[in-house]
ATPase (Clostridium brassicae), 108 residues
Amino acid sequence: MAIEAINEIKSAEEKAYETIKNAQSESNAIIKEAEAKALDEYKKVLAEAKLQGKKIMDDAVEEAQKKTVPILEKGGKETDSIKNVLEERFNKAVNLVIERIVNVNGNS
């Protein structure tokens, strides 16, 4: 009877050891699966954030370009205006020099 009890205890210990071993193995598998899922989710979130960031940047560039068009047009008009004034002044100066040359040579 004592031998049977010892054998039953030994069998129970072996079953308990096997149960613990299976539980650890299953726990490791669950952890690896959870880590893989977490990594996949992280990659998805990161990719989505990059897309959103790119869209925000593209929208900002487009908005900036829209705002710069009128400024550039105004600057172009002002530049043309300044060029016209300078050209008029230049032409007047040339005419004055020509008049003086003609007057000096005409009076000789």
About this structure: The chain has a mean pLDDT of 91. Residues 13 and 19 are 10 Å apart (CA to CA).
